[in-house]
Amino acid sequence: MMSEKTGLHHxxxxxxxxxxxxxxxxxxxxxxxxxxxxxxxxxxxxxQAKRLIEQRRADKAHRASKSVSRISLDVDKxxxxxxxxxxxxxxxxxxxxxxxxxxxxxxxxxLVKLDAIxxxxxxxxxxxxxxKRVQKYVETLDVIRxxxx
Length: 149
Description:
Ubiquitin-like (UB roll), 2 domains, 3 strands, Methane Monooxygenase Hydroxylase, Chain G, domain 1
């Protein structure tokens, strides 16, 4: 209730009653506070700093997740080109060496982008999955290059 009036986030508040800090999650009536009792509301800088650090960590994870998703879409586009080259070679056709080199370079660029993403937990697992996927396509291109030679 005090957040609206003070503009102070509820997790950044410290409530004192009779000179003692109250548990922030406890109900006032359960803590012995009666009607018309005086309470002191203070800003808790430690809680505020902790909350801001957690918010930054969550924002960083969100940005990393978006980066991995963006790279995944780029890899999807390159994967269709790899599949097309693979189909040509499977049918006994020849492909232009420059196309294979260009695709390999594009995939390696995506791999470098993935490597630059610092991530933890689920995002790290997504990044690893995409790295393996890119490596598989590069290996496929290596096989195409060998068959084409």
